[in-house]
Design a protein that fits this description.
This protein is of the alpha+beta class. 54% of the residues lie in helices and 14% in strands. The chain folds into three domains: 118 residues, Acyl-CoA dehydrogenase/oxidase, N-terminal domain (Butyryl-Coa Dehydrogenase, subunit A, domain 1), CATH 1.10.540.10; 108 residues, Butyryl-CoA Dehydrogenase, subunit A, domain 2, CATH 2.40.110.10; 147 residues, Butyryl-CoA Dehydrogenase, subunit A, domain 3 (Up-down Bundle). It is built from twelve helices and ten strands. The chain binds acetoacetyl-coenzyme A.
């Protein structure tokens, strides 16, 4: 790790954590990524390895078995993972998002019962908000949770675009218990083994094929009231609050992907000779790389500013949306440019940059499209 990177980590412990993450990524992620992505194979064993290394509960309190790390450290770990394998970085981020509702809105008994195993490393989570007809307009979701006389909720409906759908061990589910709009929504924590909870076959995606995305069906799935998180009607605010943090994970992933593109393009441009000199010495190429390197620095700074606000308990919604917007657009442009630097080779599957380009597109869509991020930022401007 170079001195500039080291200086961005607040403690010696966090510096060691990043070194350990980089070593783990070299050993466990790098050898698998091309093959698994080509085959669309979900790397469950990799998440288990990361979990046993403590990387699936980093920002959660130590008293529940978490890493007790500030968000600024956790996000740099996610960036490092995503640099080697975006699907794994996104998987860690989505798992962390899935634990947010219970960790921040669960009562003491709920946290004591479920949080240690959720962040303990063996389990993987999924976050069920989106539906086929309600993606951006999440407040109009239609999955219903109806409480019976015994207090047990029966869930009916289908969630869409669920990362880890069918692979997860637990699902944070946002469903309607009341009337229309945001106020009628409630959060639940469902065990994957709940009868009536099932997943459709995975979507066939443009990229991140190793990250399973599937619809999740709730067909009379019975969830006891003790698994309701927060009061009835609080679910939308809980879901949005979780996404403020989750979007920072996506921003960190985007910086990791931008780094991967920059490193691949730089290595190629140093070796490739045209017109008698390495193409990196031609300004047309060198400037593309310079812009990519700038996006890495600016993107990391953007997510770190938001993370530090969060760590200080200061509102960070606008900064999180801005970081997600900037970093994912930066990853898109940088991966397109990386393909350009490699020219004909970049367009083949012999080099990873064509995959990076396909993967970057997802970052502009997931956890709120970049149009929605602009809406969040514009709303903050009207209220500030
Ligand atoms: N934190 C806490 N509360 C919030 C909030 C936040 N970030 N954002 C909104 N709320 C509250 C508001 O304060 C409001 O409550 P009050 O009336 O009491 O003030 C209530 O929620 C409704 O807010 P809005 O009027 O702003 O709601 P809206 O219908 O206009 O929607 C939106 C706002 C920003 C567009 C929101 O719907 C949104 O973010 N949509 C995108 C959803 C999204 O990101 N989906 C991705 C899902 S995850 C995924 O991609 C897959 C995966 O596997 C991870």
């Amino acid at each position: 790790m170079d001195a500039a990177r080291r200086a961005l980590l607040p403690t010696e412990e966090s510096q060691e954590l990043l070194v350990l993450t980089a070593e783990l990524a070299e050993k466990e992620l790098a050898p698998r990524v091309s093959e698994y992505e080509a085959a669309g194979h979900f790397p469950r064993e990799v998440f288990r390895t990361l979990g046993h290394a403590g990387l699936l509960g980093l920002p959660y309190p130590e008293q529940y078995g978490g890493g007790g790390q500030p968000y600024e450290v956790y996000l740099q770990v996610v960036e490092e993972l995503a640099r080697h394998w975006l699907a794994v970085g996104v998987g860690v981020s989505v798992h962390t998002l899935s634990c947010h509702a219970l960790a921040h809105y669960g009562d003491q008994d709920q946290k004591d019962r479920w949080l240690p195993e959720m962040i303990g490393g063996d389990l993987l989570g999924a976050y069920c908000l989106s539906e086929a007809a309600h993606g951006s307009d999440a407040a109009n979701l239609t999955t219903r949770a109806v409480a019976g006389p015994d207090g047990i909720y029966s869930l009916e409906g289908t969630k869409a675009w669920i990362t880890h759908g069918g692979e997860a061990d637990f699902y944070t589910v946002i469903a309607r218990t009341g009337g229309p709009g945001a106020k009628g929504i409630t959060a639940f924590l469902a065990d994957a083994a709940t009868p009536g909870l099932s997943a459709a076959p995975p979507e066939r995606k443009m990229g991140l094929r190793a990250s399973t995305t599937a619809q999740v069906h709730f067909d009379g799935a019975l969830i006891p009231a003790e698994r309701r998180i927060g009061a009835e009607g609080e679910g939308f605010a809980i879901a949005m609050d979780a996404l403020d943090s989750g979007r920072l994970g996506i921003a960190a992933c985007a910086v990791g992907l931008t780094r991967a593109a920059l490193e691949a393009a730089t290595a190629y441009a140093r070796d490739r000779i045209q017109f008698g000199k390495p193409i990196i010495e031609h300004d047309g190429v060198g400037f593309l790389l310079a812009d990519m390197a700038t996006r890495v620095e600016v993107g990391r700074a953007a997510y770190l500013v938001a993370a530090r606000l969060r760590d200080e308990g200061v509102p960070f919604r606008k900064q999180a949306a801005a970081a997600k917007l900037y970093c994912s657009d930066a990853a898109m442009q940088s991966t397109i440019d990386a393909v350009q630097v490699l020219g004909g080779y970049g367009y083949t599957t012999d080099f990873p940059v064509e995959r990076y380009m396909r993967e970057a597109k997802m970052l502009q869509i997931v956890e709120g499209t970049n149009q929605i991020q602009r809406r969040v930022i514009a709303r903050a401007l009207t209220r500030d």
